[in-house]
Design brief:
There is one protein chain. By secondary structure, this protein is mainly alpha-helical. The protein has two domains: 3-86, no CATH class; 122-171, no CATH class. It is 39% helix and 3% strand. It has helices spanning 3-9, 46-50, 70-75, 87-95, 110-121, 126-138, 149-157, 164-171, and strands at residues 20-22, 27-29. The chain has a two-stranded antiparallel ribbon. The chain is globular and about 50 Å long.
Length: 176
């Protein structure tokens, strides 16, 4: 999924671009969502779906809570100064035609972030294969939203939605 698709689908409980204080940079951040292309935000209620200070499960596609706190990500060493909000901010900056990546932005953090995505949602990613296994064992369709909505929401936050093609490929690895 593109960053626009992730935001438009309903993600992060509406809080991803909320005002934060980063213990990594020792700075306050506010209105960071304004660096995104306007069309990514078309039709969204910014204060509820993008920059809410309160996590709202009903904003999410699958109406579930998932993900860790900023403090947890920072204390785990996953947050770096160039992207104080984390992976999704890095992803937005990579894809956004109006900013850094397509203007030549390359950073030492790219390989780490790409590796993190691959381990989560890539071809043999932990969460992708976890979902495929649950779908196979449930006997339901690959796109049945009742099968592991938290894992589906997690994958969506990482810019991934299970496809039939990916399901078929991954289902071959499932041991019954």
């Amino acid at each position: 999924m593109t960053p626009k698709e992730v935001l438009q689908a309903g993600s992060f409980g509406g809080t991803y671009f909320r005002p934060i204080y980063s213990s990594v940079t020792k700075q306050h951040y506010k209105d960071v969502w304004k660096e995104l292309p306007k069309d990514w935000l078309d039709g969204l209620n910014i204060s509820k779906q993008v920059a809410s200070s309160t996590y709202q499960e009903d904003v999410n596609t699958y109406s579930v809570k998932c993900g860790g706190s900023l403090e947890m990500w920072e204390s785990s060493g996953w947050i770096v100064p160039q992207d104080p909000y984390g992976w999704f901010q890095w992803y937005c900056r990579q894809v956004n035609l109006h900013t850094r990546f397509y203007q030549g932005r390359r950073t030492e953090d790219d390989a780490r972030q790409i590796s993190r995505w691959a381990k989560c949602a890539g071809d043999k990613g932990r969460w992708r294969q976890n979902l495929i296994t649950k779908v196979v064992r449930s006997g339901c369709g690959y796109d049945n939203p009742t099968v592991s909505p938290v894992v589906r929401q997690t994958l969506q936050h990482w810019g991934y939605k299970l496809t039939l093609e990916d399901f078929k490929k991954g289902a071959k690895r499932v041991k019954l």
